[in-house]
């Protein structure tokens, strides 16, 4: 089994229908490092995740994981998308949702005993085992987000990609999700897209700032001028660790 799960971008550019999304991005995310991707809407945050997954291909440059092709290691990547489209009338349980994360590991047949053991273990670790037989449509927004993280973890990944995991949840649910992400840090490579700058300094040592151009910063170096350059607005940056603005 490989031990190198570093993510490497080298001079990567990507355009959609002729419109430039990512321009000449070069950076490395180390094995078992946790980083956050921040930037304005439409700046290319989700596109970076899709390039890491191999769902889209760069027009120029290369994306590798552990020095090899993304496709060769895709089953080691857990992914939580920003949006989940589902019919609330469809009778799907929490266990059904989590087991979906095992599909990429199966060639044929139904879910086996080991699949269900793994799914239940992950639900236990996230404190959600009691919801195993609950209908997914009956869950709160925060509960759904944690179940979607459980689905991403069901493949027992070495890399976890989370796209706006804290969107559309209340403060209590956000705190629970942050606790989950914090506990995963160091166990695997974690890359999270977030719009919530306030929590970034608490959870991540490095951030990837993207607005077509990509820059990597130490979280402690984030300042008003850096954020204004990224977002193009006058912003206040709050350091939650030191309680300073």
Characterize the structure shown.
- It is a single chain.
- This protein has 245 residues and is an alpha/beta fold.
- It has one domain (7-231): P-loop containing nucleotide triphosphate hydrolases (Rossmann fold), CATH 3.40.50.300.
- The chain contains seven helices and ten strands.
- The chain has helices at 45-53, 94-99, 113-125, 141-153, 171-184, 197-203, 224-231; strands at residues 7-16, 19-29, 34-38, 60-65, 68-69, 77-80, 159-163, 189-193, 206-211, 213-218.
- It has a six-stranded mixed beta sheet, sandwiched between helices.
- A hairpin with a 2-residue loop joins strand 4 (60-65) and strand 5 (68-69).
- Helix 4 (141-153) packs parallel to helix 5 (171-184).
- The radius of gyration is 18 Å and the shape is globular.
- The chain starts with 6 loop residues before the first strand and ends in a 14-residue tail after the last helix.
Tags for this entry?
245 residues, single chain, alpha/beta, Rossmann fold, transport, Metal_Ion_Import_ABC, globular, ATP-binding, six-stranded mixed beta sheet, disordered C terminus
Q: What is the percentage of strand-forming residues?
A: 15-25%
Shape: globular
CATH class: Alpha Beta
Alpha-carbon Rg, integer:
18 Å
Task: Give me the number of helical elements.
Answer: 7
Main sheet, how many strands, which sense, barrel? 6 strands, mixed
């Amino acid at each position: 089994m490989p031990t190198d799960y570093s993510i490497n971008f080298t001079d990567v550019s990507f355009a959609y229908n002729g419109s430039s999304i990512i321009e000449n991005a070069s950076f490395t995310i180390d094995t078992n490092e946790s980083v956050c991707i921040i930037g304005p809407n439409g700046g290319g945050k989700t596109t970076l995740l899709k390039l890491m997954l191999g769902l889209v291909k760069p027009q120029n440059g290369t994306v590798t994981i552990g020095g090899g092709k993304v496709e060769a290691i895709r089953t080691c990547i857990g992914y939580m998308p920003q949006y989940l489209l589902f019919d609330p009338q469809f009778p799907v349980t929490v266990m059904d949702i989590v087991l979906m994360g095992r599909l990429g590991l199966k060639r044929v047949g139904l879910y086996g005993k080991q699949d269900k053991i793994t799914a239940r273990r992950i639900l236990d670790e996230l404190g959600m085992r009691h919801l195993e037989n609950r209908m997914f449509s009956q869950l709160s927004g925060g509960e759904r987000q944690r179940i979607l993280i459980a689905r991403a973890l069901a493949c027992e990944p070495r890399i976890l990609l989370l796209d706006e995991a804290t969107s559309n949840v209340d403060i209590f649910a956000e705190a629970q999700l942050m606790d989950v992400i914090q506990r995963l840090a160091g166990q695997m490579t974690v890359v999270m897209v977030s719009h919530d700058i306030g929590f970034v300094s608490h959870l991540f040592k490095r951030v990837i700032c993207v607005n077509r151009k990509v820059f990597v910063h130490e979280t402690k170096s984030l300042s008003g001028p850096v954020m204004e350059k990224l977002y193009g607005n006058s912003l206040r940056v709050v350091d939650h660790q030191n309680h300073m603005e």
